[in-house]
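Worked Example 4.2. Consider the chain below.
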Amino acid sequence: MYDPVANIKSQIKRIGTNEKARLRNKAAKAEVKTRIKTALGAAGSGAETATDDLRLAVKRLDKAAARGIIHRNQAANRKSALMRKANTLLSAGAAAE
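Applying the procedure from the previous section yields the following structure tokens:
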């Protein structure tokens, strides 16, 4: 745990809550990145679970935006980019067959 430098009780508490929030946000952002990577990998390989993986990645982005972990416009931009990349990969996979 963080060794507080502050000598004011409320500031020591605030440092603790900020650290908890930072760790929670870090975990949520990491999960979003993982879901996006999984979705793009599934779309690229033409897996049957590609649509489910895409749906889950979008859901995690929306949830992160709703909780204030990322801005809602950033979530919209990431969803847009994700869908563009996924559609390109899926159409390339369909054309190859």
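Helices lie at 9-45, 50-66, 72-96. Residues 9-45 form the longest helix (37 residues). Compare this with Example 4.1 before moving on.
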